[in-house]
Design brief:
The chain is of the alpha+beta class and 396 residues long. The protein has 3 domains: 21-99, Dna Ligase, domain 1 (2-Layer Sandwich); 103-229, ATP-grasp fold, B domain (D-amino Acid Aminotransferase, Chain A, domain 1, 2-Layer Sandwich), CATH 3.30.470; 237-392, Succinyl-CoA synthetase domains (Rossmann fold, 3-Layer(aba) Sandwich). The protein is built from 13 helices and 18 strands. The protein has helices at 5-14, 28-37, 65-75, 132-138, 156-165, 170-189, 226-229, 239-246, 265-277, 294-306, 324-338, 353-360, 373-392; strands at 22-25, 42-46, 59-62, 79-80, 90-91, 95-99, 103-114, 119-125, 144-147, 192-203, 208-210, 213-217, 250-253, 258-262, 284-287, 312-319, 344-350, 367-369. The strands form 5 sheets. Strands 7, 8, 9, 10, 11 and 12 form a 6-stranded antiparallel sheet that branches. Strands 1-6-2-3 form a 4-stranded antiparallel sheet, with helices on one face.
Length: 396
Amino acid sequence: MKLHEYQAKELLASYGVPVPTSDLATSHRQVHDAAGKVSGRVVVKAQIHSGGRGKAGGIVAADSPDEAEKAASVLLGATLATEQTGSRGLPVHSVLVEQCVVPLREMYLGLVVDASRKRLMFIASARGGMDIEQLSASHPGEVATVVTDPLTGLVPYQARALARALNLTGPQAVQSAQIMRSLYRLFVGKDCSLVEINPLVLTEAGELVALDAKVNIDDNALFRHPDMAALRDDSQSDPLEQEAAHAGISYVKLEGTIGCLVNGAGLAMATMDLVTLLGGRPANFLDVGGTADESRVRRAIELLLDDRNVKVAWINIFGGILRCDTVARALLKVLEERRSSIPFIVRMQGTNASEAHALLAKGPMSLMVEPDLSRAARLAVASAGASSSKMRGPSP
C-alpha cells in the first residue's frame, strides 16, 4: 500500500526525521491560508501516488499566498500524468503547501527488502533528486548498498559507511546516522516494503532535511496496522484494481489490449513478456493464485470483461492445486451469463487438462483452445490485431 508524500513525512517526523514545515490543503482557500503561515517562498505539491511530479508540472513554487492559490487552482481537481502513471494519470484531490528549502546538496537514502538475501538493505548515493534505478544504470559506482542483519539492525560501522557514501562528515555524518536508525525503526515497526528519502538535502544551516519521501506498507501486514490501513487512498488506484483487491486477486491495470489471466506470478510475468516480445501489449497483470476456487476465477474473468480496453483475453493456466477443469467451468459460466464477443484464447496444461479441454470443446465459437504456449501467444497477439483493425474500419 502506497502512502502520499504528506503521510510519509508525518510518519518520518514521528520517528525523528527532520522534514520541512508544511500543511495539507484540499481547497484554494486552505492553500492561501497555509501559504500565509509560512514566511517566504512556498512550494505547492500535488499529492498523487507517483514520482516524477515535478517534470509533469505537479510541483510549483510560489512567492506569495496569492501565487500559491493560483497554482492550486490549476492542480486541484486535475488529472496529473507522469512517466510512472502513463497517459491516464491520477486525480489530484489535495496539495501539500510546504516551506521552500534551498538545498546546498541533494542525496538519496532508501531502505528496501533484499529478496535474494531475505534482509533489509540500505541504498545511498551522494547524487539525489533522480530515480535510483536510472542512477544505478548510468552511474553504478555512485550507488552504495549495506545489508543489515535482522538480529542487530543497522550497526555503527554500517552507518559510517553509508555516511561516507553520502560524502558527509562531522555533525552531518552523526545526524545522517540518526536518520538511518530512524528509517530502520520505521521500516520494521510499520512492516514497510519501501522507505525512501529522495532527495535528502543539506541546508545552508548545515542540517539534513527529508525534502521528499516515499513509504510503502506491505499489504500482507496491514491486519497488524489498522492505523496504516486507514491511510489508504482508493482514488489513486484503478476501480478494477480495487475490485480485484476486495476479491483477493492480484491485479494491475496496464494500457494494452490483451487481457491475461494466469495462475502464478512467475507465469504471469512470462506471459506478459511473451505478448510484448511478439508485438502485443498486455492489458493487465492478473494472477488468480494457485489456490483459487471457481468463484474467484469467475470474478477474475469478469474483471477482464469489465476492462473496455481488452479486445482479446488469453487464459494461460498451468494446473497444480488449481485444476484446469475448475478454470474451464468458471469460464463457461461467465461466457454463458455475459455473452461476450471478445475472443478467448485458452492454453491449459497440468492437472485435469484433458477434462478441461473436453468441457471447452462445447463452448462458444469465440473460445479457442491452444495447448502450445508459443502458438497460443501468437494467436492472442494476432487476434488483438484483427480486433483493432475491425475497430478502425476499412482504410479510405
